[in-house]
Amino acid sequence: MQSHAKVPAADQTRALGLSTVAFTACFAVWTIFSIIGVAIKAELGLSESQFGILVATPILTGSVTRLFLGVWTEKYGGRLVFTAQMLLTAGAVLLLTLAETYVMYLVAALGVGLAGGSFIIGVAYVSRWYDAGHQGTALGIFGAGNVGAAVTKFVAPFVMVAYGWHGVAYVWAAGLAIVGVLFFLLAKDDPELVERRKSGVRAPTLAEQFAPLRNLQVWRFSLYYFFVFGAFVALALWMPHYLIDVYGVDVKTAGMAAASFSLSASLFRAYGGHLSDKFGARSVMYWTFGFSLIFLFMLSYPPTDYIIQGKDGPIAFSTSMGLWPFVIILFALGFFMSLGKAAVFKHIPVYYPNHVGAVGGLVGMIGGLGGFVLPIIFGATLDLTGIYTSCFAILFALVAIALAWMHLSVRAMERRAHGVALDALPQLPEMQEIHDPERTVMPRVLEDWRPEDGQFWNEKGRAVARRNLWISIPALLLAFSVWMVWSMVVAKLPAIGFDFTTSQLFWLAALPGLSGASLRIFYSFMVPIFGGRLWTTLSTASLLLPALGIGYAVQNPQTPYLIFLTLALLCGLGGGNFASSMANIAFFFPKAEKGNALALNAGLGNLGVSVMQFLVPIVITLGVFGAMGGAPVVLTDGGELWLQNAGFVWVPFILIATVAAWLGMNDIADARASFREQAIIFSRRHNWLMCVLYTGTFGSFIGYSAGFPLLTRIAFPEVNALNFVFLGPLVGALSRAGTGWVADRFGGGRVTFWVFAGMMLAVLGVIASLGMGSFLGFFACFMVLFFLTGVGNASTFQMIPIIMGREVPRLMPELDAAASRRQGERESAAIIAFTSAIAAYGAFFIPKAYGTSIAMTGSPVGALWGFVIFYGICLALTWAVYTRPGGLLHDIEHGRAPVNPKAQPAH
What is the pTM of this model? Predict the structure, then answer.
């Protein structure tokens, strides 16, 4: 790679100047809705919630795209990626002027969000032009392009007054397009890209670029940036509203005061880069967090009246902060936040010089998400507490956590330096002499894991595997509970004043299945990339979003349908967890116990549906959370309903499960694999065949669970179905957990064959019961269906490791016995996860099939006949490929052939 010393100063200045101008233009476009959004809201007659989603959409997409744009910059170079990003964003801004409906505006806003991704492109591009001693200053100057937000706030109002909001869009789009073209013509490819092209070295793969994301240190940097940048964006959006409500100033004064904060939090970023180069990024971060802690404490202290009993009687006084002291402290807070932004990104090219795009992309993405998430938290906390300064209290807690984590990490480095004084350690890179990248890798990694070794398994393996299993089970149970809680909420929405049609209700019941299934495809490959411990922790914590969202949304009958659609999609986060959880547990157990372990994990995890359907009807009738949970809805019969508890009840358990996963679970080093290594399953015929069979079993279980409450209420309105619909998922979950041994003993293929035969008969019984109007027959046949889906869930998963143990030696004969075993296990885990993703679409299609059948024929019978035909296809497929004489599993299940032709089965 070309050394930085050989880069001419003129080329460095050119790269930095062009990147800073481009970033300023992009940031001005990214915040365009802060001005034109008001006019769009009035034009469309948007509600506050709809307006909030429209304004937040570019912030969200601008944050998420940073990860991918950073990776592409590393691969293709900043000149090409920056130009393409600016031209595409300019096109999206023009699309705004053509939009006529709210949905079209949202689509255009997604494109406008690309402007926010420009930051990481510039970081990856600029850092390659400077050496470590000058990168901080250079990146600080580049980051000052945040001032583009102030440019929009100052200039756009004048353009809008003269030419309307369309005029602002035209001018901003044209300006960005011109900057994009000039950047392409005037900028040069960075030295590393030029050297790579000359030498013919291939660009780094995605797996190589994403490798550092496993490091705990990267996530610590992300937390820092969540505050210094995410909180900056959040406060910039929140402050005008805060100043108007708290101090009673007009919009003009509030805008100017908020703009002063934006300026201080942007312009001084260049100075922060200089200070990081001179004194060290670590020192600047201490200054940032220390002073921020002081300022946030002052800002978070609410106006309070005091009465002291003095010798001459009560002495009364009050504490409150005036407008101008508030503005001054806010300005000072912005100053130190701007220093912190530069310091965070000073760390990245020093510690990860070959992964600036991927690491910087993740850090930038999480920081940007802070600008999306924090305003929502501010609003929810204000509604909950009624205290305006609660937003600063939240940031105070966030800074305290970040400061403590940073300090403990630094002191740990000092201890590893064997007594070297901390102040004597090199600043850049921080403590380089003692920096050991391996020490920052996620802890609790099992480097030696041999479950098929009987001695290892008995002495050590079984205890570790079972601990991970018993932590995984409650986390998965909560995931299923949150995923399916929407089915219960939807059934009660009409009772508390929400006027949704039957079709809208079925859509709400079906969408968690759609999003959950789609997320499973993504989740399927995450455990080998990030590790089961980290991914279980993050995916469990993500359940807080729908749980809290449901709790707040159902309290207001004016909540738009769009919000409920969004929450329904977020409930799918729970559905995605199953794929990663099953893939993770599959790595821990030997083949002889894998079927039972997966059955326990999945079966008791599936039990979350039944737990939810049993618990929710109870908690929604009680004021479990007191005043903190909100007021109940008074029903027409005089009863009270706290439907918000259907979401709030899971919050404490989610927090406990998240902590338990982080503290108690392990990663398996041998289980790590890139997406490319796992993607081989897409060429395996049996992967797709098992997707069909597992859709017939698990897809039926989760689809019936989602649609059973609403179907029962519609088919038998005289029956209070919510009191006992939990029995169906309970039967299905327990049968899965309790019948894993049946497939291990008799063979998964044979058990699956008879399951589909039984399911065909059970659905025919449901059809007959509906025709006779017999609720008892209807309910009994559905219980049989649920039982059989549980048995089939266990048996189909038992088939997969056996199939791949047979197929991998045939498909990859060059592998020795040990390598063949590892490859079979890796492919089995990936197939288990991927089939669970495809099968989960049953949670969408079965409720939607009910709704479509009812809309077209007035009865769900048409959908049920479709299920019978599908089960017949599954039965024929199982027999033809696996269980007939000559089928793949016939000899194995009859004890006539080993599972793996290269090795005897493990005992």
Answer: 0.51
